[in-house]
UniProtKB/TrEMBL annotation:
Record's keyword terms, sorted: RNA-binding
Biased composition (Low complexity): 529-550
Protein's UniProt name: ATPase
Protein's UniProt keywords contain RNA-binding: yes
Annotated region described as Disordered, given as residue ranges: 520-550
Domain of life: Archaea
NCBIfam families, alphabetized: PRK13764.1 (NF010335)
Example of a GO MF term: RNA binding
Family: In the N-terminal section; belongs to the PINc/VapC protein family.
Gene3D superfamilies: 5'-nuclease, P-loop containing nucleotide triphosphate hydrolases
Residue ranges of domain PIN in the record: 1-115
Length: 615
């Protein structure tokens, strides 16, 4: 008897199994070098199937030493190109040819391989693939009704996040430390069960990291060298809500049903954004809208009528292209995080698809600001007209986003009229923010209620005046506002004539550009007891990491070695400056001469505290 197993049969241990039960006693077993190459490649990539197959080859060698079978390795090792094209059947073809050449029966657990072999008149023995894993979630015992996530790692005690939305506690749930053997057994069972069960699938399979979706659990399984130990993080939703469970439910229903809209659902991690997004998706589906989702990984708990799409070939742009052919009424995009995500979101919205995006943000306005620089300013209200901010599982704030050509609040000159994005509180109808271009930069100005010492518009005007004067003066510049359209600028004695210019021409040009009357004086003329609006930071509580930017000839550089790849916000004395992604070199580089760099350099000159906060 001559037997030639393919990779699937070797991985499942079917040859040694048949030798043990006497079916292959005394048989000659031909093992293709192509099978050895596939197993070695899988093992090098950290796949358990590769190691299982290599263990089977060792068992066959022991059986050959005992005289139970004759073992021979045949054929050639596949090329690197053939290995890469294995999914196209190149290696399977090599194995079939070897079976025909040696007059051996092909043993396989691959149904396609078996059918092709029969068509080629090769003798075939087909056996069902072995079910790997328990078929259930082995770590489900760690969950109770209030557990949102379980965190397991080699040589540590199991922990979990438990509680209600907005009131989660990270706590130890078992005193016994998880050893490496136990962690590997759990990890293997989770992955294998997801492969074999109709309730699960592998969302991501990379060396060192696998993302598994098993029923309503999303499980990340990390291995060295990607992680410093075997780690399993399992997350599941602890609540499924209806839109009626939230404040402004009637108003939001009317708004969403009125027409396709662009909605950003924002909030901090764990605030309940995805839970609210699920409620919106179910409501839209019940309201006779065709609803789809774009997720990576797919973990929104929605009904079967809502098809959940992931990144096609690893790219959400391809998913978007496919969805535009499907033409859904609404698409739920979870999560919109990187610049590419915002571009895809905007393209689909401008194509007429209603879009609901989930965004990490610590304030409602921060979600909208993340579109600035990624979407043309004038198009933002067409991309996003509603922002919902979720806090502790509840709707905290809803913003209505519109655009209007007007003079921004706090400015008076009619020739300063421009397109202004107005962000209005949905409940009160009161304008909260304005976003517009001012002196070649995009600014977000909070509209003061009159209680603050300096409104957002005042601060903006002061900064712009200071920017203009600093481009002329060589020494220290101090600006104080006097009313909505007048300011006093204090400069060094040596600078005053240069700032005013011949016949007052230079300062008149600045006044015309800014629409503000400016009185230029020396520092000695400053009234006693008056304070500078450009004073250094007061040293109050700090949010985020305090950094010291480095100004080079071409860039302003902020070092963030511990945050490579993260999206962060850069702030000055707590005021938002811009959003950036930390590069591979561990730094943020802003080209000098840009509006962002100018604002950052001014903050440095004013000795403001520069901080970086995770976006």
């Amino acid at each position: 008897m001559k037997i030639l197993p393919d990779t699937s049969a070797v991985i499942d241990g079917r040859v040694s199994e048949r030798v043990d039960d006497g079916s292959y006693d005394g048989a000659t077993v031909y093992v293709p070098e192509a099978v050895v190459g596939e197993l070695e490649s899988q093992a090098n990539d950290g796949h358990d199937t590769g190691w299982d197959g290599l263990s089977e080859l060792q068992r066959l060698a022991d059986l050959a030493d005992a005289g139970d079978i004759a073992l021979e390795y045949v054929g050639r090792r596949p090329t690197a190109q053939e290995q890469r094209a294995s999914y196209e059947g190149d290696i399977d073809a090599l194995i079939r040819d070897l079976a025909a050449e040696h007059g051996a029966t092909l043993l396989t657990s691959d149904a396609v391989q078996a059918e092709v072999a029969r068509a080629k008149q090769v003798d075939v023995e087909f056996v069902e693939a072995r079910v790997r894993g328990s078929g259930d979630l082995i770590i489900e015992e760690f969950f109770d009704d209030e557990t949102m996530s379980v965190h397991l790692k080699t040589d540590t005690r199991p922990k979990a996040k438990r509680g209600a939305l907005g009131d989660m506690h990270y706590e130890t749930i078992r005193d016994e430390v998880s050893d490496e053997a136990t962690m590997k057994a759990w990890a293997d069972d989770i992955v294998n069960s997801a492969r074999s069960s109709p309730d699960g699938f592998i969302e991501l399979d990379e060396p060192g990291m696998k993302i598994v979706q098993f029923r309503d659990y999303r499980i990340a399984v990390a291995h060295p060298p990607f992680a410093d130990g075997v780690e399993i993080t399992a997350v599941r939703p602890i609540a499924k809500t209806d839109l009626d469970d939230y404040e402004f439910a009637d108003e939001l229903r009317s708004r969403l049903k009125e027409r396709q809209r662009g909605v950003l659902i924002s909030g901090s991690p764990g605030a309940g954004k995805s839970t609210f997004a699920q409620a919106v998706a179910e409501f839209l589906n019940e309201s006779d809208y065709a609803v789809k989702t774009m997720e990576k990984p797919r973990d929104l708990q929605v009904g079967p009528e809502i098809t959940q799409y992931t990144a096609l070939d690893g790219e959400m742009e391809k998913t978007a292209d496919s969805l535009l052919l499907v033409r859904p009424d609404y698409t739920i995009y979870d999560e919109v995080r990187k610049t590419n995500d915002f571009s895809v979101f905007a393209d689909m919205r401008l194509a007429g698809v209603g879009m609901v995006g989930v965004v990490h943000a610590t304030r409602g306005i921060d979600a909208l600001q993340r579109l600035v620089g990624r979407v043309e300013l004038g198009m933002i209200p067409q991309v996003v007209d509603t922002v919902v901010y979720i806090e502790a599982g509840k709707v905290h704030t809803v913003y209505d986003v519109t655009t209007e050509v007007k003079v921004p609040e706090g400015l008076t000159a009619e020739d300063l009229a421009r397109p202004v994005i107005q962000v209005t509180d949905f409940e009160t109808g009161r304008p909260e923010y304005e976003i517009y271009t001012f002196n070649r930069q995009v600014v977000t100005v909070p509209l003061s209620d009159g209680n603050a010492d300096e409104s957002g518009v005042d601060r903006l005007a002061r900064q712009e005046i200071e920017r203009e004067i600093r481009s002329i003066a060589r020494g220290h510049v101090d600006v104080q506002l006097e009313g909505g359209n007048r300011a006093v600028v204090y400069v060094d004695d040596d600078d005053i004539s240069y700032v005013i210019g011949k016949g007052g021409g230079r300062i008149s040009d600045v006044e015309d550009r800014l629409g503000i009357d400016i009185d230029v004086r020396t520092h000695d003329e400053k009234p006693a007891g008056s304070s500078s609006n450009s004073s250094p930071s007061s040293g109050g509580p700090v949010e985020g990491t305090v950094v010291t930017p480095e100004v080079t000839s071409r860039h302003v550089v902020i070092r963030m070695d511990e945050h490579v790849g993260e999206t962060v916000e850069v702030r000055a004395d707590g005021d938002y400056l811009f959003t950036a992604t930390v590069g591979r070199g561990g730094d943020i580089q802003v080209s000098r001469g840009s509006a962002i760099a100018d604002e950052l350099e001014q903050a440095i000159d004013r000795k403001q505290r520069i901080t970086v906060v995770s976006a």
